[in-house]
Structure formats: C-alpha cells, structure tokens
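Slide 14.
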Amino acid sequence: MVKLPIEKIEKLWPKELRGARIGAVLHPASVLPNLAHASELLSQASMPFKLAALFGPQHGFLGHTQDNMIEWKSENHHTLGIPVYSLYSETREPTPSMLQGLDALLVDLQDVGARYYTFIWTLYLCAQACEKKGIPLIVCDRPNPIGSTVEGPVLQIEYKSFVGLHPIPVRHGLTIGQLAQQFKKEVFTQLDLIVLEMDNWHPEIEWESTGLPWVLPSPNMPTLETALVYPGQCLLEGTNVSEGRGTTRPFEIFGAPWIDALELAAELKKADLPGVFFRPLAFEPTFHKYRQKLCQGLQIHVRDKNAFKPFATTVTILSLLRQLYPKFFAWKAPPYEYEHIKLPIEILLGGPVDTYFPGPASLVESIDPTR
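Slide 15: predicted structure.
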C-alpha cells in the first residue's frame, strides 16, 4: 500500500517552517486514502503551520468548470474564510499579491502523466513564482497513474505553451515530485524546493496496486482508462473530431458526423495496433464539438496496457481520418490554451505538424454543432 506524504504531513513538515503561513495548491483529487480532502487536514489547528490561502489550477479548486479552456475567478473559501486564488484566469502564475504574507507554498496535485495536462505547468509556474519571491516550494509527491513508460516527442522550445512550457516527452513517465526536481535542476536553480516522498512506491507499481482511490482530477478524466488513452487522444483537441467531451467516456470515445464507424474500425484493424480494440459506436455530445449532433465513431478498449502505445495509436487514427475523409477532416485554428499564432495540433505535438502529418490540410475556425 502506497502511503502519500499528505497523510504524514505533520511528521514530514520541515522544522525550519514550523509556524509558517502557507498557501496550498489543490484540486478535487487532492484527497487522502479515506477520501477526505487535503484542505480539511491542512486547515486543522494541530498542524505545524497556518493555512492562509488556497490556489486552484485549470477546472477550478472545486473542479467545477466542465468544458475545456474555461477560466474561473478567485473567491473566498465558503467555510475556511481564506482566499481561493485562480491560477487559470487572467494569470496562471501566482502573483506577488497572492503570495503576500506567505512563508511557503505547498503543491499537492494528482497528475495523469501527459505533457498536455496543465497541472504540471501550474507546478512549473508556482516554482517560478516561489523562486522570484524567495520562499520554499513544497511538493507532495503522488504516483503517476499510467506508470514510468516514456512515449512521444520531446517538446521543441519554440512551440512552448501552457500545454508544454519545458522540453519533456508527451508521456513523460515521471511523478509530479520528480518533475519538480527536474524543473529545479534545469530551470529554477535558485528555488528552495522540498519534495515530500511517498512510502512503499516504486516506478513499476501499477495504480491498482497502490491502494489509492481514483478521484477525477478534472471533469473529463473520469477513470484510469481515460488517463491511459489521454497521451494520444488529447491530440484530437487540435482537430474538428470530437474527443468525446460531452459524453460519459471522454477521450476513450471519439467521432464526428462525417465518419463511417465501420469503415474506420476496419482500417484500424488492418493497422494491427498493439494492446487495443476499437469498437464502433454512435453518440450525441451534450456540449463541446457537435453538441446534440449524431456522431459516428469508436471507443478505444485497452486490452493490454503494457503493450498499448497511446501516442502512436492516435497518430495512426489521425492519419487514417485524413486519408479516408479529406473533404471533412480539418485542423483546428488558433487560439488554443493562450496560444494565438501556432496551430493547436502543433503545440500539442510540440513541433511542426508536418513531422507526423505531411501534406495539405484545411483549417476550421470553429466546429458548428449544426453542421
């Protein structure tokens, strides 16, 4: 059974920071194994510090912004009476005024192991802010739910954005604590970083063996299976193909009104991709692309997660969609995640689109649900 550092925070808390006023960056999956939220523990009077402020990443401290790229505003906590600062609004980096009066900043976020997942870039910007202010950054480590496997291209720095601020692979294979240590070593060399480690954890341990509950870290990451496919399927955000937002299985299912599900399934079967089965289906998204429009598509069923390669799988899917439906398939035009020049698919890939998808392709400014 993996023991999280948040469970033993009193024992692990640095002696030199006893009595400190701290801020904590949390989200809905910042829970203890008994499912109590970390804020309940951190706000107790017995703690060796004073919780003075809370911060939340994309989708909100409460995980309440369902759709993608929806900003949320800072507010006061309804019971604790302390500020809850938004790090996905007019700023994504804690400002000096947010950090005013704080002696340290604690981060306890559950990542899902993919470069596009913005919580690690909230960590990155918190490291930057703490280095500027000269206060410690304390990171509570948590397991990478999809393991230590590395896959996909390393970000080219000229393609950096809020879905990639530092050169790491798409599937990075690291825990959030390991990423914090990498960021310090390679960028924030003057940062006072303290990583609180897990007990009984090793890189090869599977999530199911940790004994930890799965709690949605964001509204469209409902299951471990979602996390497994996400390093590939997030690429669909850069296209006019629905990535399944507005359904109960986002990223695991995908489609569009102009796809022939049986045809696409047959072509993918010929591709003989490892560890995966594609099941034809139809769906009507309740929001996002093609809202309330009948779509045909596929559900990805991962049969062998050790053999399954999510990035390579989705690259194959996109290549086939371009080949089979050239009059309909299109790349989404900017903006995307605060990038207004480069194509969304390029900042997701972390490099030029032609590297993986050579040849002409049309652009679509928006996906009209009535189309």
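Speaker note: The first strand starts at residue 20 and ends at 25.
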